[in-house]
């Protein structure tokens, strides 16, 4: 997962809206969103190389997504899979308190990451983010948030641009259309060279990665996911892409919240 936007308690019909793009190498094996046979409560895409996920939900109302934290340093080959954290949280084996304790005590065993998680169906105002770069844990306040491969809320051009467009769309208080969200999440506008962040990679690569939707033959945006939490149910739209940017398939899931 490389960029996501969240709107918390900003739309009258949808207390939580999540729009996310997963950027990854196209030759990395994975499956699109599905209910996992070995963890039937999990609905998520799956990295079949390491067994984890980049974004998912579960039948109890939990939501979780992970992004890499870009430092420019080589990844440690022996580190645990960051996608495994998504699986651990969604499997519901631990309470939130136990899971947070695990993050705070075990984050050094993973390559740098951000993790967004919470009981979204029960209370969107309790979504949290943990960053391994400074071992910080914060609750996300009501409002609009953006997260990519650095700290949440950093003013990278694509993050600011996406928040502006999403807030303009949601503040109309009209029904949310996937086509309108797609116009935001498929934006390939690159940042001006003078506005690029500095994340430890070359300026050429920095600019290539500076759009919301990344197009490339080897690496790029592979999946867009929308989570629309209404007052009664969660609706999920997932779109998967080929390396040429064309849509491979689309699917939708919808189910009511568990009793609470």
Description:
- With 260 residues, the protein is α+β, with helices and mostly antiparallel strands.
- It has a seven-stranded antiparallel β-sheet with strand order 3-4-5-6-7-8-9, with helices on one face.
- Helix 3 runs antiparallel to helix 4.
- The model has no long low-confidence stretch (mean pLDDT 94).
Produce the secondary structure layout.
Layout: E1 3-8, E2 16-25, E3 30-35, E4 42-47, E5 55-58, E6 63-68, H1 83-90, H2 96-106, E7 113-118, E8 128-131, E9 136-139, E10 143-147, H3 157-170, H4 178-185, H5 203-208, E11 219-229, E12 233-241, E13 247-256
Antiparallel strand pairs: 1-2, 1-10, 2-11, 3-4, 4-5, 5-6, 6-7, 7-8, 8-9, 11-12, 12-13
Helix pairs in contact: 3-4
Task: List segments where confidence is low: pLDDT < 50 over at least 5 consecutive residues.
Answer: none
The whole-number mean of residue pLDDT values reads 94
**Termini distance?**
30 Å
What share of the residues does DSSP label as strand, in percent? 25-35%
Largest sheet: 7 strands, antiparallel
H and E order: EEEEEEHHEEEEHHHEEE
- The total count of strands amounts to 13
Q: Helical element count?
A: 5
**Overall 3D geometry?**
globular
> What is the helix fraction of residues, given as a range?
10-25%
| Structural classification | alpha+beta
Radius of gyration over C-alpha positions, nearest whole angstrom: 17 Å
The side-by-side strand order for the widest beta sheet comes to: 3-4-5-6-7-8-9
């Amino acid at each position: 997962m490389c960029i996501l936007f969240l709107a918390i308690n900003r739309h009258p019909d949808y207390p939580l809206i999540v729009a996310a793009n997963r950027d990854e190498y196209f030759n990395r094996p994975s499956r699109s969103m599905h209910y996992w046979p070995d963890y039937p409560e999990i609905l998520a895409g799956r990295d079949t190389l390491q067994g984890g996920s980049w974004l998912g939900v579960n039948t109890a109302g939990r939501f979780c997504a992970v992004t890499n934290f870009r430092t420019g340093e080589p990844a440690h080959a022996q580190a645990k899979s960051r996608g495994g954290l998504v699986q651990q949280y969604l499997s519901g084996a631990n309470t939130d308190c136990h899971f947070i304790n695990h993050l705070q005590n075990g984050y050094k065993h993973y390559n740098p990451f951000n993790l967004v998680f919470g009981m979204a169906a029960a209370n969107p105002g309790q979504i949290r983010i943990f960053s391994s770069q400074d071992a910080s844990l914060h609750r996300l306040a009501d409002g609009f948030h953006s997260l990519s491969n650095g700290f949440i809320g950093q003013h990278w051009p694509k993050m600011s641009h996406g928040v502006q467009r999403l807030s303009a769309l949601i503040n109309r208080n009209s029904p949310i259309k996937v086509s309108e969200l797609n116009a935001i999440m498929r934006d390939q506008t690159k940042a001006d060279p003078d506005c690029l962040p500095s994340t430890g990679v070359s300026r050429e690569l920095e600019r290539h990665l500076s759009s919301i939707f990344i197009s490339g033959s080897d690496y790029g945006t592979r999946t867009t996911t929308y989570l629309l939490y209404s007052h009664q149910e969660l609706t999920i739209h997932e779109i998967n892409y080929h390396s040429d940017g064309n849509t491979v398939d689309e699917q939708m899931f919808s189910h009511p919240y568990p009793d609470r």
